[in-house]
């Protein structure tokens, strides 16, 4: 990966990246439930919804690693430009599609655009963040995703109406609007990436050499746990977005209410990420990852209970808070463990795991929904999250603590206590002095 360093005291690049991500993710989060409602209006059942949801992740699954390899040795910003274009086009053309196969195809284009955008954006954060700032910066970066997930479903619920047979045209309108929202991202894409510069005196440059084999990256301690946690958390968010409308249809809950419930879940995730640093200092990274995934698994299983809307809202609020931990900490875990010249590839592998989960989990959910009803996907999510919690705890015990800066070498017990200590192996008290 090309070496760059954050210049100056400001972090306006991070704020603009968060805003860009908010619009891009808001468009996708508005489009996903709209795709479900439009598919239902076109005659889809639970199994067909699962297939369309899985196609969203199919193209990204095939191209994630090549894109990561390219980004390790090139610029990140072009991926953001291409990603926004594909998201906007995929959303709008999904609204114009009149058949389920066409909707599935344009959903795949939308997913490819989202992958391009996220690889580029995460690589920018990894390059421009000092080791001791990565937890904080990745946490703030993912607030952009949560803001999009907060606004998008609520906006979709407000636009879509099922009264008087209007679901087909109103869901199409929601998809066209989401395409326009994605295009707004271009307003804040300027100068997010620094040009490559010589590293400051005393800072080691990344080692040159052949590409690190994918198998070697996957064998690095901490990387598999980070990838699996990210897969589990994203699968939970994805299936919640796709299948909560189906549960709403079964329980006669209006689309507007479903949109508000999904937005409530996203608001809780934002709240979690705002207090991420003190939670890490209090519990430690390993314990926080394991406990949050375990609680999220139990709450996912609880969604199948025939509870009133207020109880469903309370469970989604708690679930959203627990799910807020996994994404930023899995990013930091993977970046810190991977070799420096393969960090974009490692992030791409993490996204490949995400997309694999987005293919397998919705497809499996669709099959389970067809056989055992719409509650089955949420039981599947619970099992997946509990498995992730067990894997995180086991990896933490094997390491005996956190992961030292970028090398994959086990750190002494106690170094996982917070983001301010991530860089102490290389920089001593310098890292602690920069604590947020």
In short:
This protein is an all-alpha fold and 436 residues long. The chain has helices spanning 12-41, 46-72, 77-96, 100-128, 134-159, 167-183, 214-218, 223-250, 255-274, 276-283, 285-302, 309-323, 326-337, 343-372, 376-399, 424-427, 429-433.
Strand content: under 5%
What is the general shape? Answer: globular
Uncertain runs:
1-9, 196-207, 400-436
Biggest β-sheet: count, sense, barrel? none
| Strand segment tally | 0
Spatial separation of the terminal alpha carbons: 26 Å
Radius of gyration: 21 Å
Quickly give the structural class: mainly alpha
> H/E element string?
HHHHHHHHHHHHHHHHH
- Helix-residue proportion: over 70%
Provide mean pLDDT, rounded: 75
**Helix count, per DSSP?**
17
Explain this structure.
By secondary structure, this protein is mostly helical. Helices cover 73% and strands 0% of the residues. The two termini are 26 Å apart.
Keywords:
436 residues; mainly alpha; 17 helices; disordered N terminus; disordered C terminus
Write the layout of secondary structure elements.
Blueprint: H1 12-41, H2 46-72, H3 77-96, H4 100-128, H5 134-159, H6 167-183, H7 214-218, H8 223-250, H9 255-274, H10 276-283, H11 285-302, H12 309-323, H13 326-337, H14 343-372, H15 376-399, H16 424-427, H17 429-433
């Amino acid at each position: 990966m090309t070496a760059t360093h954050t210049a100056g005291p400001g972090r306006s690049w991070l704020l603009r990246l968060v805003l860009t991500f908010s619009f891009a993710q808001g468009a996708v989060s508005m489009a996903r439930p709209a795709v479900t409602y439009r598919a239902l209006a076109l005659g889809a059942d639970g199994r067909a919804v699962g297939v369309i949801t899985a196609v969203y992740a199919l193209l990204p699954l095939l191209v994630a690693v090549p894109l990561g390899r390219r980004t390790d040795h090139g610029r990140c910003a072009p991926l953001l430009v291409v990603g926004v274009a594909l998201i906007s086009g995929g959303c709008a053309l999904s609204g114009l599609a009149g058949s389920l196969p066409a909707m599935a195809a344009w959903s795949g284009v939308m997913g490819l655009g989202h992958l391009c955008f996220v690889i580029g954006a995460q690589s920018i954060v990894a390059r421009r963040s000092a080791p001791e700032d990565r937890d904080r910066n990745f946490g703030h970066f993912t607030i952009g995703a949560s803001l999009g997930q907060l606004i998008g479903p609520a906006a979709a619920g407000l636009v879509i109406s099922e009264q008087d047979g209007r679901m087909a045209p109103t869901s199409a309108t929601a998809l066209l609007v989401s395409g326009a929202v994605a295009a707004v991202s271009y307003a804040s894409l300027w100068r997010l990436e620094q040009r490559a510069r010589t590293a400051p005196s005393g800072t080691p440059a990344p080692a040159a050499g052949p590409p690190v084999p994918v198998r070697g990256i996957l064998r690095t301690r901490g990387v598999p746990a980070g990838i699996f946690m990210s897969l589990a958390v994203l699968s939970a968010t994805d299936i919640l977005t796709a299948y909560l409308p189906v549960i709403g249809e079964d329980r006669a809950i209006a689309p507007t209410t479903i949109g508000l419930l999904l937005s409530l879940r996203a608001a809780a995730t934002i709240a979690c990420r705002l207090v991420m640093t003190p939670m890490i200092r209090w519990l430690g990274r390993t314990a926080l990852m394991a406990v949050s995934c375990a609680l999220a698994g139990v709450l996912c299983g609880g969604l199948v209970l025939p509870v009133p809307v207020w109880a469903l809202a309370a469970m989604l609020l708690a679930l959203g808070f627990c799910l807020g931990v996994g994404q930023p900490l899995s990013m930091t875990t993977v970046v810190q463990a991977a070799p420096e010249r393969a960090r974009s590839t490692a992030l791409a592998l993490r996204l490949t795991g995400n997309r694999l989960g987005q293919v397998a989990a919705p497809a499996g959910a669709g099959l389970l929904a067809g056989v055992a009803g719409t509650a089955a996907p949420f039981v599947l999510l619970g099992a997946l999250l509990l498995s992730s919690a067990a894997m995180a705890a086991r990896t933490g015990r094997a390491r005996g603590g956190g992961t030292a800066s970028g090398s994959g070498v086990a750190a002494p017990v106690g170094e996982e206590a917070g983001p301010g200590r991530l860089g102490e192996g290389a920089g001593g008290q310098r890292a602690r002095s920069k604590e947020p």
